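Take a minute with the sequence and fold tokens given here and flag any structure token that looks odd. Thanks in advance.
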Amino acid sequence: MDIENLVQVGQGTMSKAVDHLKEELVKIRAGKATPAILNGIKADYYGTPTDISKIANISVTDSKTLSIQPWEKSMLAVIERAIFEANIGLTPMNDGENIRITIPPLTEDRRKLLVKQAKSAGEDTKVSLRNDRQKLMSFVKKEVKDGYPEDLGKKLEASIQKMTTDFGAKIDDIVNAKEKEIMTV
């Protein structure tokens, strides 16, 4: 890493953290059916753990129901077992052709718990941003100590701080939008 492209490197790592937060928040279900609920659940496909989306067609039949149609009928039981074992609070129903998952309505307590979970994920991402900022600031200080002009170092530190603040605001917006989605009945 050199000092000239330090801000771009920082932006890259911080935007990866924000993207990761978005992926995590998609997994928090807000009472609506979405194929993303099944992201990361792997079924045993001939000895290889494989994402369900790679071995079946996942569709939303209505706002509360997911339909999973495997490419091969022999995979019905395997997919059903994988969803049970994932322990995500959903009960798959196998009708011999498809697997249907009805998303239960969320209770007020469950909604509050999900909001707390979303805020926690947002806070974890902010900690990650602060760690990135700290690394970048330490690098600038070291470079200034080794002969990089001090005024340019101060400008770099200011731009790093502004970038961190901007990404922090973006995280707050994302978490607030998810909170609104969860609390909407």
Observations:
- The two ends are 48 Å apart (CA to CA).
- Residues 3-26+107-183 form a domain with the Topoisomerase I; Chain A, domain 4 fold (CATH 1.10.132.20).
- The first helix runs from residue 6 to 27.
